Amino acid sequence: MSLNCVCDNRATGASMNNDSNRTTARSCRESPPFAIDIILHLDIFGIILYSILTFMAVVSMLVFIEECIYIYRKVPSNKKSIIIWVNGAAPVIATMSCLGMWIPRATMFTDMTSACYFAIVVFKFLIMMVEEVGGDQAFLNRAGRHKLKISTGPCCCCCLCLPHVAITRRSLFLLKLGSFQFAVLKIVFTILSIVLWTNGTFDLSDLTITGAAIWINPFVGILTIIALWPVAIMFMHLRTVLRTLKIIPKYAMYQLVLILSQLQTAIINILALNGTIACTPPFSAAARGYMMSQQLLILEMFIITLVTRLLYRRQYDPLPEEEPDNNENTKMAMLESA
Fold this sequence. Notes:
Layout: H1 2-29, H2 35-41, H3 44-74, H4 77-87, H5 89-102, H6 107-133, H7 136-143, E1 147-148, E2 165-166, H8 169-198, H9 213-238, H10 247-273, H11 285-312
Antiparallel strand pairs: 1-2
Helix pairs in contact: 3-4, 3-5, 3-11, 4-6, 5-6, 5-11, 6-8, 6-9, 6-10, 8-9, 10-11
């Protein structure tokens, strides 16, 4: 009799374990949870964490709004919208990440919104450097006798044999076009991805050769590299003349936003899709990876927002005229004609 009871207890325990394993396995395969499911599963640590991150996102947006007011009051009209666009990169990404953290099923759309905004920022940063010199004509007047070094990253940093290009109105137009194409095509491919998603064709987790994501994402990556190249060329050329305007730390913040919002997110998502990041109900492995990415971005963009505010809050006076002797304080990054 006792032996039968022991066997029954073992069978019951095994059945419960199997049910628990099946429930966990099912939750690991499910879609991201609804917002109400997250709220119901939050413990004390989760409540504190979500509250702090939400506070950071709100503060980032408030700091950005305050900075917009300052820019409209203190900055010349030709630079207002450009500097506001560049300043808004970190706060917008932090806000979108906060929405994605609370509403995991909207993560794809929040990430796409952040990526589209930053695609515009890439172009605006290039225009900002030209406007800091005084505009297209002033840039051509200053740099007309110099040449552009095009063997820079991310495309051609190893191609030292590339010739130096004369600075003309045509070359300036091509630099702008290289960044502008990304701002336009990124939005086009985002709209295409959403349309395909509604048809069930686009899925970020579908990495098969027949999936739309495996074709669209690499092509967008190529467009990104092409767009970053003109910005790097212009920065290498103007970094000396714009040193007094803190262009080097500004460029560093721009690059940091790029790395954290694009590369870091891609690495975490790949690890999640490969199963390296374990699932934790109610989050599947992929949803948990997205959640970790959103939480990291909120913290990082909050810090970048504060640093960016210090860099751009200054008097926007015109640059002094370039002296004929080309001393080290005002000269362009000049290259001798070979």
